[in-house]
């Protein structure tokens, strides 16, 4: 593809709750601002709520809003499960089976409509989807490079290095790591130093650190300052081939 931008990016995390959805939405908004037609996908979401007879996938809805896209929800989020658990557990509880071929077909339809795709995974790379497949298998099936989202808290060095090693041993390309800072005014020494220390320990570039931004609510669909995420990516935009007008 031109300008060094891949056809798609797969957003994964060191764990659940590290801010994958906010980062994915911010990247979608950044691609859109750069003049690209961007599509989004959250192949599997668990913990969906029922409203007026429909299952609401808040993460997928948030991504669509940020991207300014209007693709069918059945393509954007083919599996919307009720129980807030790993996909394997949530699907078994409902008597359902997750078919990766169905996800791949939906991805192909979406990618045929858009210049670039932002796909958000669920949990971490080894989160089980079926008894024999994980999120890593899904990313590999879609043939997408990874961006790893990590929090800045104590313990992130181990979690992030393990995630990078898992990805690389599986043959995946890791474009970089984005740190997402949790809320709270006080910051420990670990939180202050983890991004810099990791940049010395790991060959994968740190693309930037996202500060805590109030006013963002994935559940309520409030984008807040999510469109400002690009301001904090430092050299990250260069690594992703994104050029923005000043």
Describe this structure in words.
The chain is of the alpha/beta class and 246 residues long. The protein has a single domain (2-239), classed as Rossmann fold. It contains nine helices and twelve strands. It has a six-stranded parallel beta sheet, with helices on both faces. A two-stranded parallel ribbon has the order 3-6. The protein is globular.
Short synopsis of the structure:
36% of the residues lie in helices and 21% in strands. It has 246 residues and is α/β, with parallel strands linked by helices.
Could you outline the blueprint of secondary structure elements for this entry?
Layout: E1 8-13, H1 20-33, E2 38-41, E3 44-45, E4 49-51, E5 54-56, H2 58-67, H3 73-76, E6 79-80, H4 87-94, H5 100-113, E7 116-124, E8 128-130, E9 133-134, H6 135-142, E10 146-151, H7 156-169, E11 174-180, H8 189-201, E12 206-210, H9 236-239
Parallel strand pairs: 1-7, 1-10, 2-7, 3-6, 10-11, 11-12
Antiparallel strand pairs: 4-5, 8-9
Query: In total, how many beta strands?
Result: 12
Largest sheet: 6 strands, parallel
Overall structural domain count: 1
Stretches where pLDDT is under 50 for at least 5 consecutive residues are: none
Provide the CATH topology.
Answer: Rossmann fold
Mean pLDDT: 89
End-to-end distance: 23 Å
CATH architecture: 3-Layer(aba) Sandwich
Provide keyphrases for this structure.
alpha/beta, two-stranded parallel sheet, Rossmann fold, 9 helices, 36% helix, single chain, 246 residues
């Amino acid at each position: 593809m031109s300008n060094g931008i891949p056809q798609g990016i797969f957003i994964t995390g060191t764990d659940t709750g590290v801010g994958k959805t906010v980062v994915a939405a911010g990247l979608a908004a950044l691609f859109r601002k750069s003049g690209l037609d961007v599509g989004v996908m959250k192949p599997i979401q668990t913990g969906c709520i029922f409203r007026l007879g429909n299952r609401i996938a808040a993460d997928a809805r948030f991504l669509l809003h940020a991207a300014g896209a209007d693709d069918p929800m059945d393509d954007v989020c083919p599996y919307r499960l009720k129980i807030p658990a790993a996909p394997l557990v949530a699907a078994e509880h409902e008597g359902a089976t997750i078919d990766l071929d169905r996800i791949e077909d939906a991805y192909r339809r979406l990618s045929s409509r858009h210049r670039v795709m932002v796909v958000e995974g669920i949990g971490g790379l080894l989160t089980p989807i079926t008894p024999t497949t994980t999120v890593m298998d899904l990313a590999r099936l879609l043939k997408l490079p990874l961006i790893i989202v990590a929090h800045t808290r104590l313990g992130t060095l181990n979690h992030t290095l393990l995630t990078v090693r898992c990805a690389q041993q599986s043959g995946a390309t890791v474009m970089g790591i984005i740190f997402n800072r949790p809320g709270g005014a006080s910051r420990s020494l670990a939180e202050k130093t983890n991004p810099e220390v990791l940049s010395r320990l790991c060959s994968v570039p740190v693309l930037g650190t996202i500060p805590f931004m109030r006013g963002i609510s994935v559940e309520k669909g409030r984008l807040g300052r999510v469109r400002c995420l690009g301001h904090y990516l430092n050299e990250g935009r260069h690594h992703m081939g994104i050029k923005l007008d000043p």
